[in-house]
Write a structure and sequence with these properties.
The protein has 266 residues and is an alpha+beta fold. 37% of the residues lie in helices and 27% in strands.
Length: 266
């Protein structure tokens, strides 16, 4: 090991001595050759350094990353809201298509109207629509949707009318039951609660053999409501000493109605 060290030192000293004995031109050629040998390594090192510096400069700080994350969260919420709006528009479009199709198929003259006001104190009794006598609306005209009967008009002004809903006890509809000879009067019940009043079919025979799910339609008796308008389904039948009574599930969800049709005169 010591001999190898001595040899290395001797060779180094000889090399240094040889450099001092060389002419300036030979020294310059030697330096040029040495630089030519090591220049690829110098270039590689410079490129790596530039890449490292660029990578380090490209890294964002923690604050910048948090700001970007917050922006992305806001944009995501906006996209979700927009998506929900588009879904609502799709539902609205489908609902209007159904209503338009019903209007085209109906044998009645239908005047389309939109519910514009509803009082919490009379939530289950009345609503107001945006059509009045200027649109041919008169009192005691039936009101329905593509799903079934809603009620009838009462007070009518120039551009607005009040609708008495079938859930109100004063809105009485002569009705018949599908698959049966039974007929009666459909009416709502008075209530002071926030729940929907019970809608009943009264004056049935106490021996009426009614089943849950049987459909109830207007009979046309009385002249206000035309025959064949769907009112709802039998939920339960009860026999009383003098007659029978059936509770109904209304065809129209009175809590969510927005658009209706008024049955006008031909």
């Amino acid at each position: 090991m010591k001999q190898l060290s001595i040899i290395v030192v001797v060779v180094f000293l000889l090399g240094v001595g040889a450099l001092f004995t060389l002419s300036p031109r030979a020294t310059q050629r030697l330096q040029s050759s040495f630089l030519g040998l090591i220049s690829p390594f110098l270039k590689t090192g410079s490129t790596l350094q530039r890449q490292f510096v660029g990578f380090r400069e490209g890294l964002k700080t923690l604050d910048e990353l948090e700001r970007d994350d917050q922006v992305l969260r806001v944009e995501l919420k906006e996209l979700k809201a927009t998506n929900q709006m588009l879904r609502d528009l799709e539902v609205e479009n489908n609902r209007l298509r159904r209503a338009l199709g019903y209007r085209e198929r109906s044998v009645f003259k239908l005047v389309p109207a939109r519910i514009v006001a509803r009082d919490a104190a009379t939530w289950w009794s009345t609503v107001k629509i945006d059509k009045g006598f200027e649109d041919g609306i008169e009192p005691d005209m039936p009101v329905l949707t593509e799903d079934g009967l809603v009620g009838k008009t009462t007070t009518v002004s120039k551009n607005m009318s009040t609708i008495l809903l079938i859930a109100d006890e004063n809105c009485k509809v002569a009705a018949m039951i599908e698959g049966s000879r039974e007929q009666g009067i459909v009416k709502g019940t008075r209530t002071s609660s926030n729940t929907m009043p019970e809608i009943t079919l009264n004056f049935l025979s106490k021996n009426a053999d009614l089943k849950s799910g049987q459909k109830v339609y207007s009979s046309g008796v009385g002249g206000v409501f035309p025959s064949g308008v769907y009112i709802g389904q039998v939920k339960e039948f009860k026999a009383h000493p003098l007659n029978g009574q059936a509770t109904l599930v209304p065809a129209v969800d009175l809590t969510t109605i927005e658009d209706v049709f008024v049955v006008g005169k031909k």
